[in-house]
């Protein structure tokens, strides 16, 4: 079975929505990604946490079969994010970010992780993403996520890392910002011209779009009556997407399309509960059932 | 071939977008609907225009094969709408509305139109939609569109007309407003409980969703590099949707899904140019080609 390596944040989130709030719940891109991807294939995690990180949260990740051989524990506080959502539950307003030990972290990929088949570089300084790429051999595919901050402040490094990855996973707004165009079609073409052969544009409640040089694929979000907390939806999507690719052992066109649906399904579980509770609690059977339901929602 | 009756507005629009503007161009729900639907099946139009309505615009509609036997010309000005779009080209800001002769119009359906197979009640006072329903026999299906104003100001009449139609075509925001819920899934269930057996929720650049009591179908918009003017997209969608149903002579589940794609394709042509120029200029061959492209964009 192909293996997946994820390098990214583990965090404690304080999340407010119009109807509920939770403090100090397990979050971070790597937590969400790994929880989803581990439903499909063996996942190795490289991340950093502080003194305050609870053993039970380490156990929650380990219990999902995630290999934590790359988890560093350092003196200081864990990455802490405080965010708030309005009634539309679409865009998070960041109230506060304390990088803690994540701030000056330079990931070290353990020797045993260097040969991974799929690598996901979660959102972090693109200079660090480049440094991680120097430590891995990923014969099948490397994917990365990024955010508006790096587009604004580290554009050159971001362009350099984009040349070295196979798959980019990015929000619709960030794709527009990166390419300075409102048209997603044009932005997709521009991003693919920068190096990657696959682009996934995450459109939140509106779904996700997949672009290659040959074609594009447009999937809706899985319709839900109640969304509890959209935090981590994008990273959970990426986890389901990469997880499925690893499981099926292919990155051809049809596999990529099915991977989008798996990402969509995983994200739908994630947003139904706070923290990783939704995706970690979904059985493979429930994932399969929702996958078939999603297929039916788009079949002509 | 089954026939289609549309009752609704013809207008002159003044439209501003961030990159262009046009004054006094042919618009109105019935113009857009009929231009799309007439690509598929014979269309009869019931509407009203003022002294200022140009003969060449009457000719433009007639040249598409639209039966204008229900077009009244009255003393006064035609319905005039002035709208503006920001860079996102999603929601129109209405700058001004002059109802003109449309304001106190009571549609009279000519005897020859009373037996139509499909009826589209474009957005207008629901009391008037009810009065139109009393004048027609529509054995196959009646569809209606409405808007936020009637939801706020004529809710009772709107609920009465909803009980008498088969298909509702409505914007996402209006569906939420009508049902006082943010969840489209819940809003859809509520609207179907009011009487219609089919609901189409138009989601603008994010596509359209179809709901019946048995299932739902989620289609993306047709991706375009350049949108020139979104005015009329929803009515053009409805025209392609109803037109296809009339052409194929069925309103079963698979036909409804294909109809959503036809509506999507027609709308994509409409937004590429001002006024009805885009949809009126699209050949049946171009429509078929874009339909196949759209099928490929959603195929798994």
Task: Describe, in plain words, how this protein is organized in 3D.
Two copies of one chain form a homodimer. The two termini of chain A are 34 Å apart. The mean pLDDT of chain A is 96. In chain A, helix 10 (253-270) packs across helix 12. Chain A has a single domain, classed as UDP-N-acetylmuramoyl-L-alanine:D-glutamate ligase (3-Layer(aba) Sandwich). Chain A has 300 residues and is of the alpha/beta class. The first copy, chain A, is globular. Chain A contains twelve helices and 13 strands. In chain A, the strands form two sheets. The first copy, chain A, has a nine-stranded mixed beta sheet, with helices on both faces. The first copy, chain A, has a four-stranded mixed beta sheet with strand order 3-2-6-7. Chain A has helices at residues 29-37, 55-63, 111-114, 126-133, 148-153, 155-162, 172-179, 184-193, 233-248, 253-270, 277-281, 284-298, and strands spanning 4-7, 11-16, 21-27, 43-49, 67-73, 79-85, 92-98, 118-121, 141-145, 167-171, 198-202, 208-211, 216-219. In chain A, 39% of the residues lie in helices and 24% in strands. Chains A and B meet through helix 8, strand 13, helix 10 and helix 12 of A and helix 7, strand 13, helix 9 and helix 11 of B.
Keyphrases for this structure?
homodimer, 300 residues, alpha/beta, UDP-N-acetylmuramoyl-L-alanine:D-glutamate ligase, nine-stranded mixed beta sheet, four-stranded mixed beta sheet, 12 helices
């Amino acid at each position: 079975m192909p293996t997946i390596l994820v390098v990214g944040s583990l965090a404690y989130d304080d999340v407010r929505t119009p109807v509920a709030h939770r403090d100090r719940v397990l979050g971070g891109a790597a937590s969400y990604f790994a929880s989803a991807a581990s439903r499909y294939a063996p996942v190795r995690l490289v991340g950093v946490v502080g003194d305050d990180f609870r053993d039970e949260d380490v156990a929650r990740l380990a219990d999902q079969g995630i290999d934590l051989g790359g988890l560093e524990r350092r003196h200081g506080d864990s990455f802490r994010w405080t965010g708030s959502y309005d009634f539309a539950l679409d865009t998070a307003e960041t109230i506060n970010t304390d990088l803690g030990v994540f701030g000056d972290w330079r990931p070290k990929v353990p020797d045993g992780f260097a040969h991974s088949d799929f690598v996901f570089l979660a959102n972090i300084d693109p200079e660090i993403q480049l440094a991680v790429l120097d430590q891995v051999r990923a014969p099948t595919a490397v994917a990365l996520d990024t955010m508006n901050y790096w587009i604004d402040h580290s554009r050159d490094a971001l362009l350099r890392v984009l040349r070295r990855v196979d798959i980019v996973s990015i929000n619709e707004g960030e794709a527009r910002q990166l390419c300075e165009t409102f048209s997603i079609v044009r932005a997709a073409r521009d991003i693919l011209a920068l190096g990657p052969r696959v682009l996934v544009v995450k459109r939140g409640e509106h779904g996700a779009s997949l672009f290659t040089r040959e074609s594009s694929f447009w999937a809706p979000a899985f319709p839900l009556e109640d969304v509890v907390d959209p935090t981590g939806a994008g990273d959970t999507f990426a986890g389901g997407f990469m997880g499925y690719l690893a499981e099926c052992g292919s990155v051809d066109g049809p596999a990529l399309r099915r991977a989008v649906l798996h990402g969509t399904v995983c994200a739908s579980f994630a947003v139904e509960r706070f923290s990783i509770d939704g995706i970690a609690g979904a059985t493979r059977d429930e994932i399969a059932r929702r996958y078939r339901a999603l297929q039916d929602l788009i079949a002509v």
